[in-house]
Design brief:
Elements: E1 4-8, H1 14-23, E2 27-32, H2 38-43, E3 47-50, H3 60-63, E4 68-71, H4 78-89, E5 95-101, E6 111-112, H5 123-132, E7 138-144, E8 146-148, E9 173-175, H6 176-188, E10 195-198, H7 206-216, E11 234-235, H8 238-244
Parallel strand pairs: 1-2, 1-4, 2-3, 4-5, 5-7, 6-11, 7-10, 8-9
Length: 263
């Protein structure tokens, strides 16, 4: 495994990933936009950097002095990413792991694979393309489904009486632990120039899922927007399970107790 790794966006997902990689002997540089997190990073043995995609500076070159760059930013700032790539091209980075989302796929009421249709001209699709088509470095794109785990509980997703649409559609979710394990395995196995979906095995109906997740954390029963129109997509995880020989820790979404503080 490459030992020098920079994580751009050391937040909800990037920080636990950094901790895992440090446990495996890697030297990790992590970025944040919050100055109060710098001391926290030092305590975790993450070399801290204050970096904003909207205002990249020459100090970025020190952050990019690594073998691998993991991009874990929720931003859809196309120009910001174009500017970032210019810096990457002048750095020692040769491999990029770009964290994307399954929202790039159209909801076509079908099972969705990595070859399925994407939304035309969507910002995230364009950003993925910037990385995938660049010849100066190798990129693997990982498209995560809806993220949950620990302080991110699905029972809190629809607060203050918000009505939940499309109750007969299906959910596509993935736990933080599975995200971290998958990203680590991609690096361990040196799998580059690929695109992967990452999603739990099961896809319960939205109605069943949100009734359960709210009940598990003691919230009032959800209210649904009843409609005859049923729009959905079911994300296939077959490719990544095969490539990594990976079994999901949280494969069955309806078997989880979402009130458990450990998850």
């Amino acid at each position: 495994m490459d030992k020098n790794i920079s994580i751009l966006g050391c937040g909800w997902l990037g920080e636990p990933l950094a901790i895992k990689l440090i446990e495996q002997g890697c030297c990790i540089k992590g970025s944040t936009t919050s100055s109060f997190k710098l001391d926290e990073f030092k305590k975790l043995r993450i070399t801290p950097f204050l970096i904003s995609l909207e205002d990249l500076k020459e100090t970025l070159f020190e952050f990019l002095r690594s073998d691998i760059l993991i991009v874990a930013l929720p931003s859809k700032n196309i120009n910001g990413f174009k500017n970032l790539i210019k810096y990457i091209e002048q750095s020692s980075i040769k491999k990029v792991l770009f964290i994307s989302a399954t929202s790039v796929y159209k909801s076509n009421n079908l099972i969705v694979t990595e070859e399925s249709d994407l939304y035309n001209n969507a910002a995230l699709v364009e950003i993925e393309k910037l990385f995938k088509t660049n010849k100066k470095f190798k990129t693997t794109v990982i498209r995560f489904a809806g993220l949950f785990g620990y302080n991110r509980k699905p029972g809190n997703f629809f607060k203050n009486g918000r009505i939940i649409p499309n109750p007969e559609g299906f959910v596509n979710m993935i736990h933080q632990d599975d995200c971290v394990a998958i990203l680590t395995k991609i690096i361990e196995n040196n799998i580059w120039n690929e695109v992967f979906n990452a999603c739990a095995d099961s896809h319960p109906k939205r109605r069943d899922y949100y009734i359960k997740t709210k009940a598990d954390i003691g919230k009032d029963a959800p209210v649904f927007e009843e409609t005859e129109k049923n729009v959905f997509k079911i994300i296939s995880n077959k490719k990544i399970k095969s490539a990594l020989n990976y079994n999901f820790k949280y494969a069955d979404l309806m078997a989880i107790n979402y009130g458990d503080l450990d998850i």
